[in-house]
Amino acid sequence: MNVKDKLYKNQGIHVITAIFTVEQGITKVLLVKRKNEPFLGDWILTGGALYNNEDLLSGAKREIVEKTGIKNIEIYQFGVFGSVDRSPIMRMVAVAYIGVIDSRRVQILRETLKTSNADWFSIDKVPPLGYDHNEILVEALKELQKKITSSTILKSLFPETFSLPELQKVYEAILGTKLDRRNFRKKILSLDLIEDTGETARFEGKKPAKQYRFKKKIVEKKVF
């Protein structure tokens, strides 16, 4: 064997997804607890090793189903993490994704073959994570903040109807800043992303507010 060939041996690919939700104005991320070494007992983002017979997206979605039970989630690739020592077993390059889902509409698996628990964590209360997942999470949140201002990724949080105050609160939670109510309303309505359902509902005990939904066919535009 050529000595140089050894440089190509024992390498693999991780597919990692940061799955976010917003609960009562708090941005949260889904974490799973490892049942095996390395990093036994540590919390990590959802993911694992890519199979040789699958593409990146298929592998990422398979890992989500296996580790959490969540199906049919839209995920978006945003980065690659390739530190030589990010895995103690062998060289593993991580391809990272983000996804957004309404946590009230899914039932996550609390234990699987390779995980002993799963739960939603507020992003300001995330524990030390295994591998380099704290680093990946920081970048994932930046990508989410960028994406909600230039795409309709939040459609996954509101598969049905919502009020403008409810939508604004989600933007504020993810961006970590307060938005002017009138400016937000004017901007959102001008983008032709949502439509009035003709219905009303109370939000946080206040007076009934108009209900909207995302349009089926949307030309994505920059929100802010």
Question: What key phrases describe this protein's structure?
Answer:
224 residues, 9 strands, alpha+beta, 4 helices, 7-stranded mixed sheet, single chain
Shape: elongated
Terminal residue distance: 57 Å
The proportion of strand residues reads: 25-35%
| Strands, total number | 9
Radius of gyration, whole Å: 20 Å
- The assigned structural class equals alpha+beta
Mean pLDDT: 93
Helical region count? 4
How helical, in percent, are the residues? Answer: 10-25%
Low-confidence sequence ranges? none
Tell me about the largest β-sheet: 7 strands, mixed
Order of helices and strands: EEEEHEEEHHHEE
Q: What does this 3D model show about the protein?
A:
- The chain has 224 residues and is an alpha+beta fold.
- Helix content is 22%, strand content 30%.
- The chain is built from 4 helices and 9 strands; from the N terminus they run ββββαβββαααββ.
- Strands 1, 2, 3, 4, 5, 6 and 7 form a 7-stranded mixed sheet that branches.
- Strand 8 and strand 9 form a beta hairpin.
